[in-house]
């Protein structure tokens, strides 16, 4: 969790680090076989410390690895999923703004008077929705 | 609405073409003038100047905008508010036309400001945070130019009218003209994104691709060059023109290097545009305004085509713009690849495409006239860098393996987009030769040694070899050495100049204004004017409220008090 890092377990932190390291490798290398080669080497480095049991050693290794990742980060990270946010998120994130429906409740009565049928039907739909919610048909 | 706008602009283009041919054959120039208002010995007039240059530029602008609107019909198909987009594009074209035909500073200002504000509206069309930041950067950078034009209008009031073309011969060595020319050059630099105003052009790639094709490659960014072409007679002997030469050459060089370190498709093309703008500005500041205009037009054609091809590729890749995920596209989208390759080769100046005529002429003029060695080196180095990043782009996009997913099927059967690209393809192939026959009625006499003549070919071959080598990355390869974080972040972030010119310049003042705001606006001025007076009045009114609350004790006390006063007054 980004808001309370102390609540994440060590294995979660390692997995997060591993994913970011993989994305960094994808940023540096382009050809698929080159990426795979470096990813295998990275995996081997992590597997060497797989059997460590001491938590203090865990933390030290993770700190060293995070430092190395920070020093070798790519200035232009990859963006594999253009419409997503996150480490592989891209340029098309949040392009289309969906205006929520409750905004129409704040229209002035004179504005609403331009579309009387629509707002009458809207009120009916709201009542139906509340009734369905109370009856448990919608969760 | 798309088709109507397309037909209207296409017919407008044809009308401009016929008038251009008629005007240039007969050496005609038409000047209309309507006086709107006259006050204090100044008169605001609406003027229109139609000569071969303005007609030709209007023809190109209307052709590109008609093709882009036709392209948007398919590209922006999923947009709910397409009509708003088309209206914004039409308003942009109108502002551009107003700028082109104006020999009068007031109407230039209307067109200039219109360009800046409408380009802001177009950049923030996609309403995400990135677009908002990019739009703000675009608008504020262009605003500096607008302020400069406003100040020029103030200074030109010294001469009694805003028709600047009448004053060139008369006031050439006047001190006021020196100030005016300085401000005009600054305004042109902001619009054409020269150093230090170059940060907005790559950022403006947050706009939709048709906007980039029309606005950021061929019309808005060339407005600065066009303004300097119109003012060229005045500026040619100015010292600041030499400074412009220096800055534009640096812009050309810097953007050429940055494009080699960039991985976003649209940003590479934007930096390529920046490099060509630097080339146009530099050749203009050397005094060759017709060659600058020639390159402006040919560049508009193939750059718009390049952006449109990039749009097709982005659409196909699910909105991904990263070239590291592209590859092998020539097998799947052959027609788009054809257009992309021709526009790229035209950009490199490959012989007998449109870019060759203008670019080769520029380089030969630079070689033939004995300018500074640094100018010479940077011109040829930038040409080589152009070929370098072009071949790198072709390798990444066309030749290497596809990198996005394991199983895929790609196609570009969208005939609307293809048809619009073919129009520009035709122009990219032929406009160079057509324009050279029209504009240059006599050839330039250029005599160069053999190796100097072939210097362009040498740097092009070197650039292509380097581009090929850099893109062919093996497991342990040359490119890994070049990608040290410090070097690549310095080079791809445009030498940190955007950071310096935005955050670096404004931090002290913003910090100081924050201190002032907290201490004065929200501090002392609140105590002595806003909240303080309110509190005083409130406390007094609470205090006096006691007397209005029908308090019997107060009435009795006031009765006794008055009684005592009257007693003292009358009896003592």
What does this structure look like?
Chain A is an all-alpha fold and 139 residues long. Helices cover 55% and strands 0% of the residues of chain A. Chain A has helices at residues 10-28, 32-48, 55-71, 109-112, 116-135. With 572 residues, chain B is mainly α. Helices cover 74% and strands 3% of the residues of chain B. Chain B is built from 24 helices and 2 strands. A two-stranded antiparallel sheet of chain B has the order 1-2. In chain B, a hairpin with a 2-residue loop joins strand 1 (30-39) and strand 2 (42-50). At the A-B interface, helix 1 and helix 2 of A face helix 5 and helix 21 of B.
Question: What's the arrangement of secondary structure elements?
Answer:
The complex is a heterodimer of chains A (139) and B (572).
Chain A: H1 10-28, H2 32-48, H3 55-71, H4 109-112, H5 116-135
Chain B: H1 2-26, E1 30-39, E2 42-50, H2 52-75, H3 82-100, H4 105-123, H5 129-156, H6 175-191, H7 200-203, H8 209-230, H9 232-235, H10 239-260, H11 265-285, H12 289-316, H13 329-332, H14 334-348, H15 354-368, H16 373-399, H17 415-439, H18 450-453, H19 455-471, H20 478-482, H21 485-492, H22 497-528, H23 531-548, H24 552-571
Antiparallel strand pairs in B: 1-2
Transmembrane segments (chain B): 7-32, 44-70, 82-101, 147-167, 173-190, 211-233, 239-261, 268-294, 300-317, 329-353, 373-394, 415-440, 455-478, 490-510, 552-571
Main location (chain B): mitochondrion
Organism (chain B): Bombyx mori
